[in-house]
Amino acid sequence: MSHAKVDANPFLAALDGKTRARPPIWLMRQAGRYLPEYREIRARAPTFLDFCYNPGLAVEATLQPIRRFGFDAAILFSDILVIPDALGQDVSFEAGEGPRLRPLQTQADIEALRPELNVGRLNPVFETIERLRTKLPEDVALIGFCGAPWTVATYMIAGRGTPDQAPARRFAYLQPDLFQRLIDCLVDVSSDYLVRQFQAGVQAVQIFDSWSGVLPVAEFERWCLDPVHAMISRVRSRVPEARIIAFPRGAGTYLPRFTAGAGTERMGLSALGLDTSVDPDWAATALPEKLPLQGNLDPIALLAGGPRLDEAIDRILAAFDGRPHIFNLGHGILPETPIAHVEQLMQRVRRGRQ
Ligand code: CP3
Asked: Which sequence spans correspond to the domains of the chain?
């Protein structure tokens, strides 16, 4: 991408370390059920996976929040669980209950997974990306994504979301070699998947490690940090300029371990996503000065609205003043969030720092 284009694109400029009077903004899970227009098109597909694999509907869902709010980046509409689906595990989504997978329990279950990226299955995702690139204006970036190996594995082992991912943690303690094989398989397949997303036209990717916060430090290093670093070097070996954001939710005091090598060319991550519980003042001083940081408004503050929302926004803007920052939530937007509160957020961030 030429410099002229990056300069016209505030999100990419921030990822490249540029600081602006106001930060670019997008929201995790910005497409979805809080939007009436999403609920309307969602009803057109029989299942959630059918929806994800329908380029016409996925393109529309990606563009809806851009049209309504004018975010600086669009995130591909898909889900992290398309990877287990592409590996041959049964995946479905029950309305109001979340994902259901046929849980992996035995060595045979893990050996039965197809270890290579099922491009045939995922072709509609790449087609969605190609179509989006022709539809998005130059100043709106396109973000691709996948789940981190640990987070995807937690769903594959438990077969559903759980409050603390105890099934995968237990599995990893009892059968570390077998669990390592699953993680290695996910590193391979997810790296290939991100490379294909870049080839189809995404300009940055985010690796969602939504469950990195449940592990003790040794397990965090083995199951979260090492696999994500392996993915970063794997992707960079094929897409040298790849912009990669890591979002290790709940990593807390482990965050500085995540940033070793960050900001160095072809090493480490391009930006770090911070969850709601990270103190922005701490992050702004404790994490590498040149590393772009993304976050971290409490999704409940956005749900609540009012003057406390303004205060929370201002605190984050002030904390990251003077360093590359991408405004975002500390986790995904909640389906009950009023549209008017997102408009309030946009106006406040766009108004710039006071
Ligand atoms: O951010 C976006 O707008 C792009 C689309 C996107 C979805 N899921 C759509 C979705 C993204 C980036 C995701 C990521 C994702 N999916 C994560 C990581 C981020 C996080 O929230 O921690 C995880 C853990 C999943 C797995 C998943 N998918 C769960 C647990 C659920 C059910 C609970 C829920 O939030 O609804 C889903 C379903 C899902 N993924 C929906 C959407 C819009 C709702 C289903 C529907 O509309 O019918």
From this structure: 3-351
Residue written as token pair 């922005």: 280
Instruction: Write out the chain's pLDDT in tens, 354 residues.
Output: 445 567 789 999 999 999 988 999 999 999 999 999 999 999 999 999 999 999 999 999 999 999 999 999 999 999 999 999 999 999 999 888 899 999 999 999 999 998 888 888 999 999 999 999 999 999 999 999 999 999 999 999 999 999 999 999 999 999 999 999 999 999 999 999 999 999 999 999 999 999 999 999 999 999 999 999 999 999 999 999 999 999 999 999 999 988 876 555 445 799 999 999 999 999 999 999 899 999 999 999 999 999 999 999 999 999 999 999 999 999 999 999 999 999 999 999 998 554
Distance 247 CA to ligand 1 centre (A): 15
Q: Please indicate whether residue 32, judged by its CB atom, sits closer than 6 Å to ligand 1.
A: yes
- The dihedral of CA 53, 56, 59, 64: what is its sign? negative
Assigned CATH class of 3-351 = alpha beta
Catalytic residues: 29, 33, 42, 79, 155
Q: C-alpha angle 165/171/172, rounded to 5°?
A: 90
Question: Are 128 and 59 within 8 A, CB to CB?
Answer: yes
